[in-house]
Amino acid sequence: MADVVLFTGQVDNPADYLAVADVFVHPSLYEGQPMVLLEAMMQHRLIVATNIAANVGVLGNQTYGLLTQDVTTDAFVSQMLFAIEQQTEIAEFDIKHYQNDARLAFYNIIK
């Protein structure tokens, strides 16, 4: 596995690592606002993430990444293999559009 997977641990600026990654794997079981997904999307990286509420909120209909069926290891492995074997393509992420949608949603809540 060490020949194909890089485990960096915590780094101050992951941009250089994201720039050369084929897939960004996000196995989190809890997130408030998963900023790391937005960072990966801005670099047009395919994402495989656990199916938790915050990740669904960002990846939504899986246009920008793949969500697991559940939070089990088997589901995660299955989705990672699918991404690799199918050479999964993702849509171009538009951060300005995302920000505008987020602002509108916020304004609608506070109205």
Protein described:
With 111 residues, the protein is mainly alpha-helical. The chain has a single domain (15-110), classed as 3-Layer(aba) Sandwich (Rossmann fold). Helices cover 45% and strands 9% of the residues. The chain contains five helices and three strands; from the N terminus they run αβαβαβαα. The protein has a three-stranded parallel β-sheet with strand order 1-2-3, sandwiched between helices. The longest helix is centred in the last third of the chain and has 16 residues, at 95-110. The radius of gyration is 15 Å and the shape is globular. The mean pLDDT is 85.
CATH architecture: 3-Layer(aba) Sandwich
Mean pLDDT: 85
Helix amount: 40-55%
Number of strands: 3
Q: What spatial order of strands do you see in the largest sheet?
A: 1-2-3
- Give the helices and strands as they follow along the chain: HEHEHEHH
Which geometry do the CA atoms define?
globular
Low-confidence blocks of residues: none
Explain briefly what this protein structure is:
The chain starts with 14 loop residues before the first helix and ends with a helix.
Keywords:
mainly alpha; Rossmann fold; about 10% strand; about 45% helix; globular; about 110 residues
List the helices and strands and how they pair.
Layout: H1 15-20, E1 23-26, H2 35-42, E2 46-49, H3 53-59, E3 66-67, H4 73-85, H5 95-110
Parallel strand pairs: 1-2, 2-3
